[in-house]
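Q: I'm writing a short methods note and want an example of a predicted protein-small molecule complex. Could you take the sequence and the SMILES for NAP and return the bound structure as tokens? Please keep the output block clean; save any remarks for afterwards.
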Amino acid sequence: MNTRKFGRLGWDVSEIGFGAWAIGGGWGPQSEEDSILALHRALDLGCNFIDTAQGYGDGKSERIIAKVLRERNDDRVYVATKIPPRSPGAWPPSPYDAIEDRYPEDYLRERLERSLRDLGADCLDLVQLHTWTRAWNANPTALETLKKFQKEGKIRGIGISTPEHDQNSLVDLMRNGWLDSVQVIYNIFEQEPAAEFLPAARKHGVGVIVRVALDESSLGGKLTPGTEFPDGDFRRNYFAGDRLDRTVARVEKIRETIGTEERDVPTAALKFALKPDAVSTVIPGIRNVQQAERNCAVSDQPRMSDDLETRLREHRWLKSFWYSGK
Ligand SMILES: NC(=O)c1ccc[n+]([C@@H]2O[C@H](COP(=O)([O-])OP(=O)(O)OC[C@H]3O[C@@H](n4cnc5c(N)ncnc54)[C@H](OP(=O)(O)O)[C@@H]3O)[C@@H](O)[C@H]2O)c1
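A: Understood, no commentary inside the block.
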């Protein structure tokens, strides 16, 4: 497993991190035994970065991580968690929401204490605000609160995870030095971060965590037009209506572009996400030992060729209804 620098925090983080949403729930049946074995296997293979959130099973993902880390004597494993905006309210936040209502100081403190407890830690490596709106860039009071927690020695790094529709929304905050890291969607379909985000992250020493490199599993290459998602799997909505058919058709075109140059579609998808130097770690969602092994192995393979990366750029997909039509 290769490592990369995590921005100005200077941590050496594994190129493949562990995306810990599914082990908390929301992806259909998931046994705790599989989750624990998968996490141990990834850590055995050199993964030293885990991304979780309070929202993943209402603390379940954090508690499973704490249990696994207690069972091990690893040199250093970095755990990034996320605090959601206060409910009730829109997700992602509406441009009319006041940051003082969604991330007030007393609420953030209560939430900080909650992650310290569930992760069994005295200090959290990285706290990310789970979502954001550009409307708050001019007055990011919640980040001042997190800086206060940092000074108190309760958190090491401060990050934000981008809202789903707006991957370049945090660039101003990065330029103004507010952020140690940003979590962003960057994959063969979603290439908007190449516009401003990736160069700005590099220039300003911001750690970059790439999420959804497998497009919520479509770039795992296993979905077909007949795939049915079980109850309790958020993909019933994500791939609802004709979205599944349209996505699978596009994945088949991507498979043709890859040909025999890479082992399979998920390998190519992870390598595509790892290709920019600005990226610190890519965190595929991992729910079993086989996925831990396959995904971690990607870092040991040669990087994707410039030529294939360029050809894959053609598969960029602006996936909103307005752009793509129905
Ligand atoms: N707003 C946010 O901040 C936010 C949002 C989303 C995700 N995240 C973070 O980013 C992480 C990654 O995103 P994600 O889990 O949503 O989506 P993803 O990484 O794009 O897809 C993960 C899914 O793909 C399948 N998969 C994994 N490895 C595979 C392989 N080698 N071959 C084929 N299929 C494979 C698994 O599902 P099956 O086994 O069911 O096929 C897995 O649950 C999350 O776990 C979470 O930590 C953050």
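A: Remarks, as requested: The chain has a mean pLDDT of 96. The pocket of NAP is lined by residues 19-22, 27, 51, 82, 130-131, 161, 183, 211-217, 220, 222, 266, 283-287, 291, 294-295 (CB under 6 Å).
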